[in-house]
Amino acid sequence: MSRGYEQIGVAMTCRSFAEYERMFRLKPELMEAGPILDVAAGASSFVAEAAARGLAAKAADPMYELSAEGIYRHGMTEIEVSTGKLTKLPHLPYEDESFGLVLCSHFLFLYHEQFDYDFHTRALRELLRVCRAGGEVRVYPVITLQWDRYPMLDLLLEELRTAGFEASLELSELPFIPGSKELLRVQK
Ligand SMILES: C[S@@+](CC[C@H](N)C(=O)[O-])C[C@H]1O[C@@H](n2cnc3c(N)ncnc32)[C@H](O)[C@@H]1O
């Protein structure tokens, strides 16, 4: 029996504020300190719900280049997005140190067969670039679509620590995928 499930392209998903709260163990003080950036936010309602609660939050995702109708079509058909486009250098359209909390749910680590280690380190650097000193970056989950721990996780943690960041794995309160207990927390 094979483990995990086969995924072609990157899935479009729509996790809620309540799910993010539990996945990332978000407490009101941390979110209120904000502003918050949700990276690879896709169709998640986290930012809309956060804004409705009076929190300062923004969402970034390459999918937002599409029109509303285009996003709808994308969701309806779950089309395969070209790997070439997806593997572009991650660049977030924000100034350095713009956010107190930067979240990335179900994108990094999960798709490690499509995105190599170099992509992951560049992506992490970009998340940290837009995070202000004293703020933090949280990534969930830290496993792959095969439901194995991201194979380069220890090296990544070591590199983050060598670069002067406090990097730790903490328990998530919402294990979406079997065996997925941890989130990555990097303090800048
Ligand atoms: C599985 S969804 C996660 C959506 C949301 N964070 C959630 O947990 O419901 C993965 C998202 O990654 C986005 N994505 C794909 N390639 C990307 C890239 N190179 N940089 C940033 N986001 C990317 C996709 O558009 C998609 O919305």
From TrEMBL:
<dbReference type="InterPro" id="IPR029063">
    <property type="entry name" value="SAM-dependent_MTases_sf"/>
</dbReference>
<feature type="domain" description="Methyltransferase type 11">
    <location>
        <begin position="37"/>
        <end position="137"/>
    </location>
</feature>
<dbReference type="Pfam" id="PF08241">
    <property type="entry name" value="Methyltransf_11"/>
</dbReference>
<dbReference type="InterPro" id="IPR013216">
    <property type="entry name" value="Methyltransf_11"/>
</dbReference>
<keyword id="KW-0489">Methyltransferase</keyword>
<dbReference type="GO" id="GO:0032259">
    <property type="term" value="P:methylation"/>
</dbReference>
<protein>
    <submittedName>
        <fullName>Methyltransferase domain-containing protein</fullName>
    </submittedName>
</protein>
<keyword id="KW-0808">Transferase</keyword>
<dbReference type="GO" id="GO:0008757">
    <property type="term" value="F:S-adenosylmethionine-dependent methyltransferase activity"/>
</dbReference>
